[in-house]
């Protein structure tokens, strides 16, 4: 059995301001660094992590570096695990986005919004495609008994959980939550190819 543990980055300045981050270099807050430190301690106690895959965006890299103070494993920073590129919408507040661009509201518009791509950005369907592609290669490359840690973002984790549960994009984003430094654990049976969710949005350490 292979274990894959996916965690969200710590709180950022833009999380606190409720601004849409996308690929912006928003740093962790003091709380975000504390969350990552506590997460690292819990991961070190509960898992024998063999390698780390991390988004190469600033907030994920900063989180991963704090985790590596507790976890002794090689790390690879990869663009596949990035949050959605919001293009011209990056930096808007959540309220401003809903008021100015209602055509992107998943709750109101549904699948059309999931496939809509902002100028110079990605659609949610684009994000799902790259995340699931990297997920499948991660499963293929994994070794029996290995534990892989993935440091990423709320959007990719919800899309990944949705993929495993058989949810569409709208359900995956709207019906699931991911808090900062949450833990999500997947068990992969190489013989059958089955993936089981063991832990989801676990924030008991935060």
Write the layout of secondary structure elements.
Elements: E1 2-8, H1 13-17, H2 30-46, E2 51-55, H3 58-67, E3 75-78, H4 94-100, H5 106-109, H6 111-114, H7 124-141, E4 147-152, H8 154-165, H9 169-174, E5 183-188, E6 195-202
Parallel strand pairs: 1-4, 2-3, 2-4
Antiparallel strand pairs: 1-5, 5-6
Task: Give a structural overview.
The chain is α/β, with parallel strands linked by helices. It has helices spanning 13-17, 30-46, 58-67, 94-100, 106-109, 111-114, 124-141, 154-165, 169-174, and strands spanning 2-8, 51-55, 75-78, 147-152, 183-188, 195-202. A six-stranded mixed sheet has the order 3-2-4-1-5-6, sandwiched between helices. Helix 2 packs across helix 3 and helix 7 crosses helix 8 (154-165). The longest helix is centred in the middle third of the chain and has 18 residues, at 124-141. It is globular and about 50 Å long.
Query: What's the N-to-C terminus distance?
Result: 28 Å
Please, how many helices? 9
Kindly state the mean pLDDT as a whole number?
A: 97
Shape label:
globular
Largest sheet: 6 strands, mixed
Number of strands: 6
Order of helices and strands: EHHEHEHHHHEHHEE
Strand content: 15-25%
How would you write the strand order of the largest sheet? 3-2-4-1-5-6
